[in-house]
Specification:
The chain is of the alpha/beta class. It has helices at residues 11-22, 39-48, 62-71, 86-91, 93-114, 148-165, 200-208, 236-251, 269-280, 304-310, 318-331, and strands at 2-6, 26-31, 53-56, 76-79, 118-124, 171-177, 179-181, 215-218, 230-231, 233-235, 255-261, 267-268, 286-289, 298-299. The mean pLDDT is 97. The chain binds nicotinamide-adenine-dinucleotide and uridine-5'-diphosphate.
Length: 338
């Protein structure tokens, strides 16, 4: 299939371009490079031995998106493009609502005008309400989001459900990611957050490489076995393969469907630090700090539905995630700027 990949130069998008190419699809990327470098796609092309067609542009430019769709005979869209920092969204909510909602609606317009009927959307476990019991199944309660970023995902899901309902031929897959981490095993592509990382894994690897002094563990008095927060970390290559499975699913289903992409297993902050130290042979200095506002004690996925209906399962271990993150970090301490 010819797949329009919005935000394809980003962390998850670049890994997905590799897996799409390796599965025989042709990714065509549009990205405004607001949070990425075009080098990610050059490196992705190096991994798969094939150029990846790239358009620098904004998804909100409906005319440009229509032109790309027509020129490349696009069969399907994977929509990664969006702003993704929870903390930034709290400080500046409007750019988050503008970018994330308007890009999704512009894409729906372009798809309508050109007759493209299939779309996969990057949603997040953050759409689930805080009062659910674990593991989170796709039918768990959503809403009551704790930050504007989460609300944009919740609202985009609704927009896309309505988009699917408006025409019987349309097919929408909403993928709710848990905690994507790791990098391609080649060490050529990976995650490079701007400034101080908010997320655990890049903070650990930047501490290990000496860019940060010490990891603050946000709370060690949660009701978990070692008192630290528990999350469902998923290797970005497994996540990327989940998108290939979603494309296959789109080919034989219409309407809107939602799937969790996680491993179904929880790992605590201390367990992650220990796994990283062991897998990479490095020390990660840590100190205990107060809980971070809005954090849940525990969050992990039920993966039964994606196993049954998408025929997809995460395969990589926590050790794989740590080793591949470290391999990327130590070879590219400044990300694509090196
Ligand atoms: P990323 O920032 O690395 O990639 C997003 C890409 O979209 C960037 O390359 C950015 O330049 C581009 N972009 C943003 N707005 C655009 C616009 N209007 N037009 C064109 N390009 C635009 O983020 P990522 O980690 O690869 O995440 C991809 C998607 O998955 C995002 O929608 C994110 O919200 C979602 N998601 C990510 C995580 C995570 O932990 N990484 C978890 C859940 C969901
Ligand atoms: N965390 C931490 N120190 C950090 C970053 C994160 O202790 O510098 C903890 C955080 O409190 C949570 C877990 O690591 O329990 C995962 O946090 P992350 O921000 O990566 O994911 P999210 O909380 O959004 O699921």
């Amino acid at each position: 299939m010819n797949v329009l990949v919005t935000g394809g130069a980003g962390y998850i998008g670049s890994h997905t371009c590799v897996e799409l190419t390796e599965a025989g699809h042709t990714p065509i990327v549009i990205d405004n490079l607001s949070n990425s470098s075009p080098k990610s796609l050059e490196r992705a092309a190096e991994i798969c031995g094939r150029q990846i067609r790239f358009y620098e542009g904004d998804v909100r430019d409906v005319g440009l998106v229509e032109q790309i769709i027509t020129e490349h005979n696009i069969d399907c869209v994977i929509h990664f493009a969006g702003l993704k920092s929870v903390s930034e969204s709290v400080k500046m909510p409007l750019p988050y609502y503008r970018n994330n909602l308007e890009s999704t609606m512009a894409l729906c317009d372009a798809m309508t005008h050109t007759g493209v009927k299939k779309i996969v959307f990057s949603s997040s476990a953050t759409v689930y309400s805080a009062d659910n019991i674990m593991p989170l199944s796709e039918s768990a309660k959503t809403g009551d989001c704790t930050n504007p970023y989460g609300w944009t995902k919740y609202m985009c899901e609704q927009i896309l459900r309505d988009f699917a309902a408006a025409s019987s031929e349309r097919s929408v897959v909403l993928l709710r990611y848990f905690n994507p981490v790791g990098a391609h095993p080649s060490g050529l592509i990976g995650e490079h957050p701007n400034g101080v990382p908010n997320n655990l894994m890049p903070y650990i690897s930047q501490t290990a490489v000496g860019k940060r002094e010490c990891l603050s563990i946000f709370g060690d008095d949660y009701p978990t076995p070692d008192g630290t927060g528990v999350r469902d970390y998923i290797h970005v290559v497994d996540l990327a393969k989940g998108h290939v499975a979603a494309l296959k699913y789109l080919g034989s289903h219409t309407g809107a469907s939602v799937f969790n992409l996680g491993t179904g297993k929880g790992t605590s902050v201390r367990q992650m630090v220990a796994a990283f130290e062991q897998a990479c042979g490095v020390t990660v200095p840590c100190k205990t700090a107060p809980r971070r506002a809005g954090d849940l004690a525990v969050c992990y996925a039920s993966v039964d539905k994606s196993a049954c209906e998408l025929d997809w399962k995460a395969e990589k271990t926590i050790e794989d995630m740590c080793r591949d993150s470290w391999n990327w970090q130590k070879n590219n301490p400044n990300g694509y700027d090196d």
